[in-house]
Structure formats: C-alpha cells, structure tokens
Amino acid sequence: MKIWKFNDEDGDIDLTPMIDVVFLLVVFFMTVANMISAEKHPITVPVALNSTIPDDYGERTTVTVTADGSLYAGVYPVDLEELAEILIAERERNPAARVFIRADSSTEHQYVNDVMQICAASGLSNVIFAAYQSDK
Length: 136
What we know:
By secondary structure, the protein is of the alpha/beta class. The chain contains three helices and seven strands, in the order αββββαβαββ. It has a five-stranded mixed sheet with strand order 4-3-2-5-6, covered by helices on one side. Strand 2 (61-65) and strand 3 (71-73) form a beta hairpin. Helix 2 packs parallel to helix 3 (109-121). It starts with 15 loop residues before the first helix and ends with a strand.
C-alpha cells in the first residue's frame, strides 16, 4: 500500500479543486440572484376609498391582471386553465391557501371577475386585492 506524503520540497499546491469549488459558488450565486430579481409584472394599482391593510398578509399566491387582461401567476404568464390548475395545486398543498389579486386600475372588470370565479371554483375564498388607500 502506497502512503501519500506531503512533499513540500517543490512548494506547489494543486489549486484545481479550490478553483472548481469557487466556480460552482459563482454559478450558484448568479442563479439565485437571477431568481430573486424576477419581479412581478408592473401595473397601475387602483385607489380605493375604503381600503385597509390586512393584519396578516401571510403567504399568498399572487395573481396579476394587466390592463389588457393578461394573467400572471407570480411572475409567470398563464391562461385561465393554467391558473385554475395552479390554484387547485396550491389548495391541495395548503388547505388554508390564500390569494392576492393585483389588477391594473384600467383593466375591465370581466377579467378580474374571471379570476375571482377561478378562485372560488378552486376552493380558495380568502382573497385580497391590491389597492392604495385614499386620503379622503
């Protein structure tokens, strides 16, 4: 059996494993930074006279409705069928799942109504809407 002995006479250290680890860490942090920087689709949030801030916002599935009626579940574009599948899966994962609807102030109410119906059909009744509080 050959026993390895550190030979410090030549003074060379193999840096290849350390470079591999550093490279993997760089790739990891670049990937995580990209995931964190993915932001929600921008909308114009409506102003509501009687809006309140919920005491417990908690973890909610965010659904965005843009001015042209496009839907986003989180940051991903979806259609109504995909949204229903996502909400049903969320309810099965967490029976107390909740929904946060971000609707653009200029979107037609029909698009928001469609999302509300999908939420109800999926068994999710705890829904809140994004709105600014009015000064009046």
